[in-house]
């Protein structure tokens, strides 16, 4: 699903945004021709309920937000980008028999929070052990969206606990989804000649 840590990549993007969104976006773009030739096929994008706290600002896309909770905000922003990516991808692939879904796996006990500050770990780790799902439970919704028959009409939608869920209002903003798509193409170096599908 990605990473929740501060820092910058050698490409000049925030670590969370590049790993959690731009990497997924570019991989999907590079696989689109193959996915279409193998249709029906599906793309499942692992997002998070943390998208509810996401705020995408077009003028600072890919740069870490300011403030003391910068790494957390950056993670939330990248997860909003995941939900919007699935929404716009579904629009652009309508009629191709390639469908896509954004999923919230639940709060899963993985190595996602390995970069949590040392002072916070004694407070945070007991919560993880008590309340977070194991990896197998966390995979259920992604597997549901990858394999369940009859989900095609929900392409571009958001799922949690193997059920269709309504995402936070900014995650339903078609204008924001289109802006993110176009900006992401530029940021990964695709643009007009990159062969990405148009709406």
How would you sum up this structure, described in words?
It is a single chain. The protein is an alpha/beta fold and 199 residues long. Helix content is 42%, strand content 10%. The protein has helices at residues 15-37, 70-92, 121-131, 135-138, 140-147, 174-188, and strands at residues 41-46, 98-104, 158-160, 163-165. It has a four-stranded mixed beta sheet, with helices on both faces. Strand 1, helix 2 (70-92) and strand 2 form a beta-alpha-beta unit. Helix 1 (15-37) runs parallel beside helix 2 and helix 2 crosses helix 6.
The gross shape turns out to be globular
| Mean pLDDT metric | 86
Helix tally equals 6
Largest sheet: 4 strands, mixed
Instruction: From the alpha carbons, calculate the radius of gyration and give it in angstroms.
Output: 17 Å
Helix amount, in percent? 40-55%
Low-confidence stretches: none
Q: What order do the SSEs take from the amino end to the carboxyl end, as H and E?
A: HEHEHHHEEH
Main β-sheet, spatial strand arrangement? 1-2-3-4
What brief labels describe this structure?
four-stranded mixed β-sheet
Question: What's the arrangement of secondary structure elements?
Answer:
Elements: H1 15-37, E1 41-46, H2 70-92, E2 98-104, H3 121-131, H4 135-138, H5 140-147, E3 158-160, E4 163-165, H6 174-188
Parallel strand pairs: 1-2, 2-3
Antiparallel strand pairs: 3-4
């Amino acid at each position: 699903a990605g990473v929740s840590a501060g820092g910058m990549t050698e490409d000049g993007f925030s670590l969370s945004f590049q790993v959690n969104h731009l990497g997924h976006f570019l991989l999907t773009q590079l696989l689109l021709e193959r996915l279409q030739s193998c249709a029906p096929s599906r793309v499942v994008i692992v997002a998070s309920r943390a998208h509810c706290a996401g705020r995408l600002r077009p003028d600072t896309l890919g740069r870490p937000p300011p403030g003391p909770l910068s790494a957390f905000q950056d993670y939330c922003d990248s997860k909003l980008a995941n939900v919007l990516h699935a929404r716009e991808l579904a629009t652009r692939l309508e009629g191709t028999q390639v469908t896509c879904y954004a999923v919230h796996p639940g709060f899963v006990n993985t190595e996602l929070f390995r970069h949590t500050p040392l002072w916070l770990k004694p407070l945070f780790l007991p919560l993880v052990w008590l309340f977070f799902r194991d990896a197998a439970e966390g995979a259920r919704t992604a597997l549901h969206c990858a394999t369940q028959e009859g989900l095609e009409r929900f392409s571009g939608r958001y799922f949690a606990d193997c059920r269709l869920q309504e995402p936070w209002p900014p995650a339903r903003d078609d204008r924001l989804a289109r802006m993110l798509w176009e900006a992401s193409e530029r940021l990964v170096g695709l643009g007009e000649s990159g062969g990405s599908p148009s709406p």
